[in-house]
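Q: Predict the assembly, please.
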Amino acid sequence: MKYSNTIIALLLLGDLSYAQEKDAKKDKPTSIATVSYDVRPGGTVEKPLILRTYCPDPGLDDAVLGNHGKAAPTPKYSPRHGKDVEGTVQPIDGIPAAIAVNHGEKLSYVWDTTECRLLYAWKGGFLDMSPYWGGGDRGQRKGFGYTPKLDGVLTYLTKGYHPIHINGKPVGMPHYLGHSRKNNLPTFRWSANNAIISTAITTIPESADGSLRVEYRAEGDATISYKGPSGRGLAGQAPNPVQIEQKAPNHLIVTIQPDPTVAKFSKKKEKEFKGVTLARGEHLFTAYSCATCHSLDGGKNHGPTMENLYGSKRMFGDQEITADDSYLYESIAEPNAKIVPGYQPNFMPQLPLSADEINSIILYLRTFSKIHD
Amino acid sequence: MTNFPMTHPNTNSIMKPYLATLLVVLLSVTTIPAHAYLKVETIPLPEGTPPEIGGLAFDPDGKLYVATRRNDIFVAKPTTDPNAFDWKLFASGFHNGLGIEAPAPGHIVVSQMAELTEAIDTDGDGSADTYNNLNNEIGLSGNYHETNGLCPDGDGGYYVAAGTASHNGPTFWKTHGKYSKIGRRGRNYSAVQWKGWVMHFKDGTLTPYAKGFRMHNGIFRDSKGRLWCGDNQGDFRATSPLYLVEKGNFYGHPSSLVWDKDFPKDKDPLNTPQDKLDEMRTHATVLIPFIEMNRSCSEPAEIPANFGVFPGQLIIADNNNTRITRIMLDEVGGKLQGSCTHFINGLGLRTGNNRLEWSPDGKQLYVGQTVRGWGKPSEGIQRLSFTGKTPFDVEQIKLTKTGFELTTTLPVANLDQAEININSFHYQDSFRYGGGQLDKKTIPVTKAASTADKTVTIDLESLQAGKVYHINIKNLKSKDGSKLHNENFYYTANQLH
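A: Predicted assembly structure:
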């Protein structure tokens, strides 16, 4: 076994973002795992972490993702009424079928199996998986938008159409074949234009700035050449400076200099909320996917509906309780405190919510009730 | 132990030994009940590994491969001691690998979110170095719910069960594979290709096999070559069903139809009237009551001949409760239907039961558990084995012209007709989530008798096709004095004799 304890120990100590998590690791020695409960997983230069997951889209242009399907906003749907209702659901940013690789602090990148190309690279960290994996051992996606977050500084973001040409032509409909892990370095194999290409991505060890080295090889007598970014919407977006080494007609090395300013093209940050507001309540209700179990339209589900919940009366044993602010507060803060007859305990997770957040959710729940005190 | 009253500090020292003794007695009673015919053992993964089990597979050398949902695949040769498994990392880089097969030592096939992947250890060092994309024509919208189950086709190929997306999660703006605006509508949806389908993969080619599924989490081919999957209660699923999957059939959830070449283009499948869907669809072989039996069907499996009890019967795991359902098939009018009861209910089995895999000798059932996204986490691997003590239980239920014939595992001692109660009801699928037991009626038992050593015959005042019959038997004892292990059975009478 090449996964000796030494290597694994290096792996685990290689790239931790928080001292607190370092301590957690010491307490829980792991002999084998590359992925643990740590929501900030990582690898090292020698022993990368190869993670398949939904990946963030830090602002890739349409030409980059030309082989993807294009989603659209969709009407909100009421499962109780079996038809669309007012409002729309927006798709979110994310890359569905990519592979994220971390070589420690100096290099993380995302290579996409749909486009068969390097999409972006960053340094200083890897991925914060908490939106998707949840915190600690909860193992539960946190909300409606659950793509992991980039941890660190983006240094490269690809632009436009595929940067290489094969047999003198642009890459059309690439197909991912797989990858090998000789010497623990992933080398991606893909086909396009009747040729088979391999791509390997590394950092240049001697470069202080963490330049990327992207090596392409074509099998057989196919030829490859570097064309650089082209496509719509690239105006004003200077590509990263590159150096091209055409080693042979079928062998190409592209060295990409990092450009920390690429981050400025990345998309907007998440909205921040303060205090007790309806908007915050609605945001949280959506973010934690409360409607997975609590319908808004009276429909039956794993938990009671929110329709006309506020102000309603319910029996617990022989005690009648009004679903008022304090009842709802308790039910959110301690989901098992009172289980409505006909429903199961332990279904609802205890969410890490502040008092302001719980009160905001209660404000939001009031909007679904026509019952007034 | 929250039921114990708090003891006064002064009495604490006196009470302690008594409480400790009581605790030991209680624990021994609750963990190994006298009637237990199954032993449950818990098998830990390496410490610190989130043991969210997506899949389990034995290779021909008897090594167990375990796919964890976050990324990694571990391998170990099972040991008698459940704590002595020497786990090694075999492969990594799997996004929600919810199906795994090991066709050869050092060679696995995994259905993960974005593709069907083969990982091979070509240099024999114990870890995979070559990863091949066998097929990625099943799309991926970015929804969290689009997981894929896997089973062999018996001829070098595979069946893949592609679950639908949930409206409780979005799609990405950019999807892997083409996007359908119509398919995106509804509760559980099919915005990208083949969600809600069973697909057949062979010799590099992926072909549509059957459609109309919602969340058929787990697919299984039995020893007779029949293909089975469950599904999850929800929209167009009034309760948990068990389906016999046959080529070309439609199983009732409309969203998948958007990818059917025979379904009118640009027509929204959700607008199909329910009576039309009912007419088009293939009935569940067995309808499994949601609360009483199985809240969330996951992988089916077949009890091996040498396990020791219920040979050849199907079981199907409950992802939402501490139980596994046993299926008793019956053939009526040339078609399979049948009944269900508990195979195991509690006995130390955790919830989250997601995948079932028998050890190569057929003596032990490995259960992979995960509940990510559902309630309290319950994760890991447990192993069930037969204690050798045959339970007094109903082994088979056959429909007769006038009622039911039950075969028991042990000879019946007493039978009181008044202790047998039968209800009938039916389910109606609809766009609404789930559905109740409709038109519930008591069906009078006209005669019930033990007609042979291990046979109970029940005659009913009436029988009606399309009903589920709830058979409740109280206070039945075997000749050796055992109480009946299960008292409730549900027979799905799609057809009558």
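The radius of gyration of chain A is 25 Å. The CA atoms of residues 238 and 262 of chain A lie 9 Å apart.
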